Amino acid sequence: MMKWVRYLCLIAAALAVPNVRTSAGLVTESFVTGNYLREQCTGDDIGQAYCLGYVVAIADALSAPGNTGLDGWRACLRPKQTAGHLKEVVTQFLQNHPEKRDFAAVSLIAEAYAVQFPCAH
User: Fold this and answer.
1) Taking a C-beta distance cutoff of 8 angstroms, is the pair 105, 30 a contact?
2) CA dihedral angle for residue 12, residue 16, residue 17, residue 23, rounded to 10 degrees
3) Residue 15 is inside which H or E element, if any?
4) What is the H or E stretch that residue 32 is in?
5) Residue 99 lies in a domain
6) Please, are residues 37 and 92 in contact by the beta-carbon 8 Å criterion?
7) Banded pLDDT at 17 (limits 50, 70, 90)
8) CATH value at residue 13
9) C-beta separation of 58 from 106 below 8 A
């Protein structure tokens, strides 16, 4: 039960919203940057759970019916992607692009998915 309380506290903390740039160059309000997300994704169990929830939430948002993209990025995730694989995609993207880590995590995740899971035109 206490783990769930901690997870909920982390999610609540993510709702604080200072301004940061997105990978598309827009200024948006976001608490979570790529640097912060990378720390969580490679950190302790609580951080990794936070990361997993965050990357899955963005995947769900991009996969929603009628979604035309997120911050200019479109991705077509394959059915039955595992949460672990999505986390690996994002973690690898953040590792490979340190110059973008100060951007909003939501935009970086969308970009990582767009690169890994491009939509057929």
Assistant:
1) yes
2) -50
3) none
4) none
5) yes
6) no
7) very low
8) 1.10.890.40
9) yes
pLDDT confidence of residue 111: 96
DSSP track, 78-107? PTT--HHHHHHHHHHHHHH-GGGTTSBHHH
Asked whether residue 18 carries a pLDDT value surpassing 50, the answer given is: no
The span from the CA of 86 to the CA of 94, in Å, is: 12
Residue 69 has pLDDT above 90, yes or no: no
Number of domains in the chain: 1
CA distance 111 to 52: 17
Q: Distance (Å, rounded) from C-alpha 30 to C-alpha 15?
A: 8
Quick one: which of 85, 65, 57, 73 has its CA closest to 23?
A: 73
121 domain residue, yes or no: no
**Lowest-confidence segment of 2-11, 49-58, 98-107 by average pLDDT:** 2-11
Instruction: Please answer whether residues 78 and 27 qualify as being in contact, where contact means their C-beta atoms are separated by less than 8 angstroms.
Output: no
